[in-house]
Backbone:
């Protein structure tokens, strides 16, 4: 009987040790799997809103709580043309299939026109945008490209931009399936819709940072 108890204790101990080792391996595997993904941010204050939210509450900060490999090249106030300098800073080592690029651009270009744009004007801006997307694909052909469409701020004073934003977002949707320009669309237009989503009327708020970070992290 004594030998049986001793054997039983040994077997239980082995089971516990093996079980702990198994769960540790699974946990480390999941963690490493997440860390194998590279997230690259290009564009404007939608992706770099640190100037408008409390410290540690930006889109980038929220992403860093989910994964370690986040590369933020976005700059507050950037236009489409400004994004080229951001692209130049991205190292060639990130040109691989486990790199996910997120691009937010075009909003400042429209705002800088200070009023309702004609349809041809929006189209010209969008053509410039697509040229940039093509440049991204040329440099980072193995990476997966995701583009963020434009949201309409909740403040009524921005209603004059609605037609231009709607046209822009429709063009983004249409071009997402064109051969050679394929990309995934992140729909911020339906994600950010309430006054609580914005600070300074137009910038993503602390809560919006969480929403944007979550949708980026889950887009894989």
Residues:
């Amino acid at each position: 009987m004594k030998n049986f108890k001793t054997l039983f204790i040994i077997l239980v101990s082995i089971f516990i040790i093996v079980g702990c080792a198994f769960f540790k391996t699974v946990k480390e595997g999941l963690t490493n799997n997440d860390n194998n993904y590279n997230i690259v941010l290009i564009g404007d204050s939608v992706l770099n809103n640190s100037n408008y939210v409390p410290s540690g509450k930006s889109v980038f900060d929220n992403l860093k709580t989910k994964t370690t490999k986040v590369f933020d090249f976005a700059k507050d106030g950037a236009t489409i043309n400004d994004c080229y300098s951001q692209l130049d800073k991205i190292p060639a080592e990130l040109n691989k299939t486990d790199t996910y690029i997120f691009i937010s651009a075009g909003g400042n270009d429209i705002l800088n026109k200070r009023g309702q744009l004609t349809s041809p004007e929006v189209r010209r801006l969008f053509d410039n945008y697509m040229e940039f997307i093509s440049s991204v694909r040329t440099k980072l052909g193995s990476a997966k490209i995701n583009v963020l469409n434009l949201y309409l701020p909740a403040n009524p004073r921005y209603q004059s931009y609605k037609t231009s934003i709607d046209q822009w977002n429709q063009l983004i949707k249409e071009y997402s399936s064109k051969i050679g320009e394929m990309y995934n669309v992140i729909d911020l237009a339906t994600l950010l819709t309430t006054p609580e989503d914005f600070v300074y009327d137009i910038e993503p708020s602390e809560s919006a940072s969480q929403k944007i970070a979550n949708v980026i992290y889950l887009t894989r």
